[in-house]
């Protein structure tokens, strides 16, 4: 089966870049990305590509090439669904904040709404592709809704989890380590799998497209994120041990990373992982394990989250302790707010939690991030509901010039590994700071030796 018309529901960090690349690589397929968020769609359609709602290196070029040719962004959800032969569901699946499974289970209300909407508007058979990260066996629920509420159209459900990493999304989509497609092992299911293999096959080598049953595919995505997060928590746990024993976590990471069985990636200690996925997907895995009565499995994975929370608290508390046990009224400059470099995404960013703890200690925070807006930062703090909006506004000042953030500061906290931080005039910064001038490098990005030579007192995690 050759697909000519694709619809993607959800124009977020996954839907937008993924569909842009599918459209660029398949000029013969019309790809329409739809979203309920009018502002987001308007930004995707902005003639100035600097205003795309998502910052990813190289994304502007891909969108610029395909948009208006065979890539469209629209709020007309029903129309796009009905016209498509293949519908990707790429909506958000946050952790539940209410009811049974609160704080752990994935909130599938957006997925269910999509399924009901697809069933309601479809007048022809379709392949439905789960692009969102979902608990294992969600396809069964989607199928039940489609089969029981539809107008007689037939649906095949595929699981096609996305493995892109924010900050390198375009690169990852252009040359994925693998594409994973799960489907029913029936003749119709295999035909649907084949149709999606052909979409990716225009640029991904066939041997890198793995096909499995539905449940293996759904569970593999949660497993991949759990393994990656586990590595971060593992090295972070050892960073604390390094600090008390005189070992250096960077050296330990380098030493073990050379072991081909371990490998060098994700072995950098930091203030903790963030992002929209790791925490929610592990919590989801924990919840699923618990719901099957597998308490030992659940406890094992939950420890990854506990260690991550510990690392964020430890970093913030160390700032307070080092600044003579009080940061009240002191200016603490934050370099970075995004959860990692090269993205404007701040979901679950360590910066938010470190700020929250320091605001409780009555610090006066001044933050600078090259891609994150003030509105976003205030929204992140308000979301925690630790204090009211006015108090957050009073405690946090957001500036567009890093030197303004750093001037007269008692301490600097590096929360994101943006490359530009390395290029600053650190002598000038030192001259304009309060003394002793403290730097807390939560990402190990700055040149510690050079900073110490200038006169800074530098703390780097794991040293
Ligand atoms: N962000 C990542 O790095 C990443 C990587 C791999 C997988 N994922 C998974 O992909 C999914 C999407 O993540 P994201 O980061 O793109 O989320 P996002 O919040 O950036 O985007 C989701 C979009 O879906 C829209 N939406 C929700 N319900 C809708 C509906 N009924 N109709 C139309 N639009 C609707 C929202 O308005 C939003 O713009 C999640 O399940 C996530 O776990 C994310």
Helices and strands, with pairings:
Elements: E1 5-9, H1 15-25, E2 30-34, H2 38-44, H3 59-66, E3 71-74, H4 77-83, E4 86-89, H5 109-121, E5 126-130, H6 138-149, E6 155-159, H7 169-174, E7 179-183, H8 187-200, E8 209-213, H9 214-245, H10 249-257, H11 278-291, H12 295-322, E9 331-335, H13 350-360, E10 364-368, H14 374-384, H15 389-395, E11 396-398, H16 402-406, E12 411-414, H17 426-431, E13 438-441, H18 448-454, E14 457-460
Parallel strand pairs: 1-2, 1-4, 2-3, 4-5, 5-6, 7-8, 9-10, 9-12, 10-11, 12-13, 13-14
Antiparallel strand pairs: 6-7
Helix pairs in contact: 1-3, 5-6, 9-11, 9-12, 11-12, 12-13, 13-14
Bound molecules: nicotinamide-adenine-dinucleotide.
The site of nicotinamide-adenine-dinucleotide has 27 residues, from helix 5.
List keywords for this structure.
single chain; UDPglc_DH_euk; oxidoreductase; 463 residues; binds nicotinamide-adenine-dinucleotide; NAD; EC 1.1.1.22; alpha/beta; six-stranded parallel beta sheet; UDP-Glc/GDP-Man_DH_C_sf; Rossmann fold; globular; 2 domains
In total, how many beta strands?
14
Structural class: alpha/beta
Q: What Rg do the Cα atoms give?
A: 23 Å
> Roughly how much helix do the residues carry, as a percent range?
40-55%
CATH architecture of the largest domain: 3-Layer(aba) Sandwich
The major pleated sheet works out as: 8 strands, mixed
- Write down the CATH topology of the largest domain: Rossmann fold
Low-confidence stretches: none
Bound molecules: nicotinamide-adenine-dinucleotide
Estimate what percentage of residues fall within beta strands. Answer: 5-15%
Shape: globular
């Amino acid at each position: 089966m050759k697909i000519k018309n694709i619809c993607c529901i959800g124009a977020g960090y996954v839907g937008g870049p993924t569909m842009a690349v599918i459209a660029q690589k398949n000029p013969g397929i019309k790809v329409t990305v739809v979203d309920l968020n009018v502002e987001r769609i308007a930004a995707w359609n902005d003639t100035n590509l600097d205003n795309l709602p998502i910052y990813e290196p190289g994304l502007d070029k891909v969108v610029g090439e395909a948009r208006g040719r065979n890539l469209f962004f629209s709020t007309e959800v029903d129309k796009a669904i009905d016209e498509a032969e293949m519908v990707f569901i790429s909506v958000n699946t946050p952790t539940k904040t209410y009811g049974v499974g609160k704080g752990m289970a994935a909130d599938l209300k957006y997925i269910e709404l999509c399924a009901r909407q697809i069933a309601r508007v479809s007048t022809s058979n379709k392949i439905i592709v789960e692009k969102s990260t979902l608990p294992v066996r969600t396809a069964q629920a989607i199928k039940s809704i489609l089969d029981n509420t539809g107008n007689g159209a037939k649906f095949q459900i595929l699981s096609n989890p996305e493995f892109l990493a924010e900050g390198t999304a375009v690169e990852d989509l252009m040359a994925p380590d693998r594409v994973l497609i799960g489907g029913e092992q029936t003749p119709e299911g295999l035909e649907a799998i084949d149709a999606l293999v052909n979409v990716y096959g225009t640029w991904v080598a066939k041997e890198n497209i793995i096909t499995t049953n539905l449940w293996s595919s759904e569970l593999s995505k949660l497993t991949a994120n759990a393994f990656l997060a586990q590595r971060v928590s593992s090295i972070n746990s050892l960073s604390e041990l390094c600090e008390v024993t005189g070992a250096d976590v960077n050296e330990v990471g380098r030493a073990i990373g050379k072991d081909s069985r371990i490998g060098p990636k994700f072995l950098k200690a930091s203030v903790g992982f963030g992002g929209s996925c790791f925490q929610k997907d592990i919590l989801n895995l924990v919840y699923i394990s618990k719901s099957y009565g597998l308490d030992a499995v659940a406890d094992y994975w939950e420890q990854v989250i506990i260690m991550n929370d510990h690392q964020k608290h430890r970093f913030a508390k160390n700032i307070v302790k080092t600044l003579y046990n009080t940061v009240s009224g002191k200016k603490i400059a934050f370099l970075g707010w995004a959860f990692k470099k090269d993205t404007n995404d701040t979901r679950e960013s360590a910066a938010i939690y470190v700020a929250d703890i320091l605001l409780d200690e009555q610090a006066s925070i001044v933050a600078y991030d090259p891609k994150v807006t003030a509105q976003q930062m205030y929204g992140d703090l308000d979301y925690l509901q630790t204090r009211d909006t006015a108090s957050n506004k009073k405690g946090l000042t957001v500036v567009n010039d890093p030197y303004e953030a750093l001037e007269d500061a008692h301490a600097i906290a590096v929360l994101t590994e943006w490359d530009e931080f390395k290029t600053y005039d650190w002598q000038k910064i030192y001259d304009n700071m309060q003394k002793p001038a403290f730097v807390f490098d939560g990402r190990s990005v700055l040149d510690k030796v050079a900073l110490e030579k200038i006169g800074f007192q530098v703390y780097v995690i794991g040293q």
